[in-house]
Design a protein that fits this description.
The protein contains 2 helices and 13 strands; from the N terminus they run E-E-E-E-E-E-H-E-H-E-E-E-E-E-E. The chain is mainly beta. It is elongated, with a radius of gyration of 19 Å.
Length: 171
């Protein structure tokens, strides 16, 4: 399978975080909701040049993910990949159901409370275990943290690039 054309939109799925053993296996920090779901994508496109690596094998090891990439056969080859982002083409991601979003699609959207006051723009998201947290750039050099839950996220308008939340400026 060849990588998609240069015009394709890329999605970062994780990154190579270390090496494991002597056969060239790598430790993977996965950004996918289920950590081992990253193993469902192949090839992995690594680094700024998006070099394609096929996935020879992969598995969960404790809380982490291990992978063996085609052509990476020893510790030194694996070590050279540490820190590389793992990408795939957006077209390879599963179709979303209505009301579902990839976080990356929400980045840069304006966030308004129910009174129409702008709280800022989405800068990033944090996984905390209890609730995910939306991190906003408040436009004044600061950040605002808003829990991302059914109670706070009142709606997303993709066309207007706005997120409506049940949240007050002074909370």
């Amino acid at each position: 399978m060849l990588p998609p054309p240069e015009s394709e939109e890329w999605v970062v799925l994780g990154k190579i975080s270390g090496i494991y053993g002597v056969r060239g296996m790598v430790k993977v920090f996965s950004f996918t909701e289920l950590r081992d779901a990253i193993l469902d994508y192949s090839p992995w496109l690594l680094g700024p040049d998006r070099h394609a690596y096929g996935l020879e094998e992969g598995r969960m090891q404790g809380e982490g993910v291990l992978a063996k990439l085609v052509g990476v056969d020893d510790r030194e080859q694996a070590r050279a990949l540490i820190g590389q982002e793992i990408r795939t083409a957006r077209a390879h991601l599963p179709e979303l159901q209505p009301g579902e979003f990839y976080w990356r699609d929400l980045l840069g959207m304006q966030v308004l409370n129910q009174e129409g006051q702008s709280l800022g723009t989405v800068k990033s998201f944090l996984e905390t275990g209890a609730n995910d947290v939306m991190v906003l750039d408040d436009g004044k050099g600061g950040e605002l943290l808003i829990p991302w839950s059914d109670e706070t996220a009142a709606g997303v308008d993709r066309d207007a690039k706005q997120i409506h939340v049940d949240w007050q400026v002074d909370w």
